[in-house]
Amino acid sequence: MTNATLKQLSQQLAAGEVSSVELATHYLDRIEALNPQLNAFITVDRARTLADAAAADAARAAGQAGLLTGVPMVHKDIFCQQGWKTSCGSKMLDNFISPYSAHVVEQCHAAGLVTLGRANMDEFAMGSSNENSYYGAVKNPWDLNAIPGGSSGGSAAAVAARLTPVATATDTGGSIRQPASHCGVTGIKPTYGVVSRYGMVAYASSLDQGGPIAQAAEDCALMLNVMAGFDERDSTSLERAREDYTRELNQPLSGLRVGLPREYFAAGLDADVAKVIEDAVAELKKQGAQVVEISLPNTELSIPAYYVIAPAEASTNLSRYDGVRYGHRAAEYKDLVDMYEKTRAEGFGAEVKRRILVGSYVLSHGYYDAYYLKAQKIRRLIANDFKAAFEQCDVILGPVAPTAAFNIGEKSGDPVQMYLSDIYTLSVNLAGLPGMSVPAGFDRRGRPVGLQIIGNYFGEAKMLNVAHQFQLATDWHTRAPAL
Amino acid sequence: MSLTHQDVARIAKLARINVSDEEIAAVGNQLNNIFGLIEKMQAVNTDGIEPMAHPQDVSLRLREDIVTQTNQREAFQAVAPQVEKGLFLVPKVIE
């Protein structure tokens, strides 16, 4: 049961081999035993989970079960869930019991999925190491000295440690792909606008996008079928016909054109990571894929452009935390402005404050054109690079991060070093493209390395096809850490 | 470019985040390092490039001007720091 995939659990439930209550109990017991060393969860509520599982069993007994009814899952603590604490990893929302549910949470609930708990994350999704959580760092299940990646570090660590078959996550600059890579699990960030942002605590609204993390690509496809879809409550949700993300999984890869951006294999890429990616590309070639060398010349500029645009949007989004309507409020203050300033100084952690300050500056009078507008022009150049590249290939392959997971504490004192490690993921968000990470090997220290697959707009089914065919021929995604 | 302590204090004021005198030097250093990274943008020629605000260049949807949500004041105020008679309380702003 422990290593079962989402698909296998769905089949076991349908065959009556196991009940939802039995499954929930199994995972809750594992969480209780293993979470103290991993810190992957912020909230677990056994009674509520078991009640939901019992309801799923009752629905099945009444003949009302869907494909995923009764399957346990975990939500990143960024998705509002009615009646559950939704902290977003912040002291600011430590007392926030959400009065409503996000669209993604509603969809999962409607599909009959049972929530095991709420995953730890970098505060307000700002971070690449999960060291920025008010609730403490998450540990990498493969090596407790290593970071799990961020910001969806709790989601990725929980799936890797087999504390859940699947978890929701979000990706603003790599926050699904990078932790999936570092934890040896599969994660997909869809095209911007495919998954509703309603009820997903906002960080940088033109970049934020939800998606699943699971063991295998097939499971991600099944989850994306649940999570995706038009929602009028998100002003940038795209009105498109529903699609079945599993529809192309079994297509052979012969004739697939795979683009390798030369900038992704330049200086700065760890030799072990490079070898893992080369081997993965060789496997796809064996299956009939054709390799095309491409260029994404503005890749390096994605870092400054992102670290202007994301903080700018964050500074406006996070202005809502004023100590008036919800969240933390300072205990003592002398007037309204003092209340705002103390509330926000106490409620936000260091990285969140840094990004709000950067954002406030780049949007301030006299600096807007030099920073924000400039960054938006570079964003266009980056999107154009991809447009040209996709005329030559069907998917783009490369590393997710320059190295496997680094040690806890290694970069936490130097924000700029941390930002530089986002080099291969940021441009995908700036362009609004879909991207995923697939387990592809390990480095010399035994830490997982993911292969990044970047698709064209709405190319999720094709990416999942590539990932699934790769996983049929390899077993990296089936390996689990010893805990 | 280098931000002075005065600049940092002004930005903190704009952001409504209290930064103490003891913190200001460290915060200033970090911000200057970050802007060192950001400044690399300035070397790029972007003449004639249309700024990209959003991944999909679509216009925002409009909806009918009708009531779609029910009043949930009690549920929403249950999580507020201070409420009275259905109102959110803040420190006095008008004498």
UniProtKB/TrEMBL annotation, chain A:
It catalyses: L-glutamyl-tRNA(Gln) + L-glutamine + ATP + H2O = L-glutaminyl-tRNA(Gln) + L-glutamate + ADP + phosphate + H(+). SUPFAM superfamilies: Amidase signature (AS) enzymes. Gene3D superfamilies: Amidase signature (AS) domain. PROSITE patterns: AMIDASES. Coiled coil: none annotated. One of its GO terms (biological process) is translation. Its EC number is 6.3.5.7. GO terms for molecular function: ATP binding; glutaminyl-tRNA synthase (glutamine-hydrolyzing) activity; transferase activity. The active site is at K76, S151, S175. It holds the Pfam family Amidase. Residues 22-464 form the Amidase domain. GO terms for cellular component: glutamyl-tRNA(Gln) amidotransferase complex. Keywords: ATP-binding, Ligase, Nucleotide-binding, Protein biosynthesis, Transferase. Signal peptide: none annotated. Heterotrimer of A, B and C subunits. Allows the formation of correctly charged Gln-tRNA(Gln) through the transamidation of misacylated Glu-tRNA(Gln) in organisms which lack glutaminyl-tRNA synthetase. The reaction takes place in the presence of glutamine and ATP through an activated gamma-phospho-Glu-tRNA(Gln). Belongs to the amidase family. GatA subfamily. PANTHER family: GLUTAMYL-TRNA(GLN) AMIDOTRANSFERASE SUBUNIT A (PTHR11895:SF151), TRANSAMIDASE (PTHR11895). This is Glutamyl-tRNA(Gln) amidotransferase subunit A.
UniProtKB/TrEMBL annotation, chain B:
It is an enzyme of class 6 (ligase). GO terms for biological process: glutaminyl-tRNAGln biosynthesis via transamidation; regulation of translational fidelity; translation. It catalyses: L-aspartyl-tRNA(Asn) + L-glutamine + ATP + H2O = L-asparaginyl-tRNA(Asn) + L-glutamate + ADP + phosphate + 2 H(+); L-glutamyl-tRNA(Gln) + L-glutamine + ATP + H2O = L-glutaminyl-tRNA(Gln) + L-glutamate + ADP + phosphate + H(+). Keywords: ATP-binding, Ligase, Nucleotide-binding, Protein biosynthesis, Transferase. Its EC number is 6.3.5.-. Gene3D superfamilies: Glu-tRNAGln amidotransferase C subunit, N-terminal domain. The keyword Nucleotide-binding applies. GO terms for molecular function: asparaginyl-tRNA synthase (glutamine-hydrolyzing) activity; ATP binding; glutaminyl-tRNA synthase (glutamine-hydrolyzing) activity; transferase activity. It holds the Pfam family GatC. The keyword Nucleotide-binding applies. InterPro entries: Asp/Glu-ADT_sf_sub_c (IPR036113), GatC (IPR003837). Heterotrimer of A, B and C subunits. PANTHER family: GLUTAMYL-TRNA(GLN) AMIDOTRANSFERASE SUBUNIT C, MITOCHONDRIAL (PTHR15004:SF0). Belongs to the GatC family. Allows the formation of correctly charged Asn-tRNA(Asn) or Gln-tRNA(Gln) through the transamidation of misacylated Asp-tRNA(Asn) or Glu-tRNA(Gln) in organisms which lack either or both of asparaginyl-tRNA or glutaminyl-tRNA synthetases. The reaction takes place in the presence of glutamine and ATP through an activated phospho-Asp-tRNA(Asn) or phospho-Glu-tRNA(Gln). This is Aspartyl/glutamyl-tRNA(Asn/Gln) amidotransferase subunit C. It comes from Aquitalea magnusonii.
